[in-house]
Amino acid sequence: MASTARFDVVAIGNAIVDVLARADDALIEAEGLVKGSMRLIDGEEAERLYAAMGPAVEVSGGSAANTLAGMAALGERCAFIGQVADDQLGHVFTHDLRALGVAYETPALKEGAPTARCLILVTPDGQRTMNTFLGASHLLEQAMIDEAWIADSEILYLEGYLWDPELSRAAMRRAIEVSRAAGRKVAFTLSDAFIIDRHGADFRKLIAEGLFDILFANEVEIRALAETEDFEAAVAKIAPQVPLLIVTRGSHGAIALQDGTRTEVGAEPIETVVDTTGAGDLFAAGFLSGLAEGRSIRDCLIMGAVCAREIIAQVGPRAQTDLKAKVAERLG
């Protein structure tokens, strides 16, 4: 039966603009950066580094927003909740997301921190050195949560990165309450092992309380969450606690466990891996789109793998190929 909800997925996450510029190794060395790394920086450093960068391309990003961009490309109905400021990069983010067909109405901040940005230096060897200023994205308050959207969405998708700041953590907790009260499903992506290091106790408590219906993780994250280095032991510990657990395994594919049934698929073949940024985000896009279309868990995994393959074959986390056509080629 077709869904009567307004949206297939509404997501809450960091609203970040990626600012990409080509750079030589001399600039990386002069700035004292570790090539290929990611670091958090403050507003003053962001302004200084931006001035040192060459001509740049600005593209809206952020983990959950990337997932919704992929879902919209696949024809799903999506909405995003995330905080930008009323500045140039805030306008870039808003335009990009809406142009992709994602509903986005979170009011921009009129004062305070500027829009979050990730300054990415791309060296000739393809390495991306990322410098992230979280700015306004971490100032998402509960008052900015559109409860009507959440209640009218089949799935609420939450980005683990945004659990770090106290303000947005409270907003996400409220969103979970609204979604569950409306009889909807809550999906959570663990995002990164360092987030689990900081908030693992929180996540384990939410899982034990049965507040997550769908949990996304990669191999490193599931081991961190389960507090064991043994992958299979980690899966065995977490899977009984969530109705649907999805774990991506890079070149080894992905698994899903639903009500005791395990489904596995391999990674989709690819000639050259160009940039792994956004692979997990686009995997989630494919999987959630499969759920929205009422497909089998195996097909959902394959859709995730196809979308991940497409994103790692290019630079950047927003698909430059026709995801819908690629999925149709694979599954029909």
Identify the notable features of this structure and list them briefly.
single chain; 332 residues; alpha/beta; UDP-N-acetylmuramoyl-L-alanine:D-glutamate ligase; 9-stranded mixed beta sheet; 5-stranded mixed beta sheet; 12 helices; 14 strands; globular
Topology:
Elements: E1 7-12, E2 16-22, H1 25-30, E3 38-40, H2 43-52, E4 56-61, H3 63-73, E5 78-81, H4 88-99, E6 103-104, E7 116-122, E8 128-133, H5 147-151, E9 153-159, H6 166-181, E10 185-189, H7 193-208, E11 214-218, H8 219-226, H9 231-238, E12 244-248, E13 254-258, E14 261-265, H10 279-292, H11 297-312, H12 323-331
Parallel strand pairs: 1-5, 1-9, 2-7, 3-8, 5-6, 9-10, 10-11, 11-12
Antiparallel strand pairs: 2-4, 7-8, 12-13, 13-14
Helix pairs in contact: 3-10, 7-8, 8-9, 10-11, 11-12
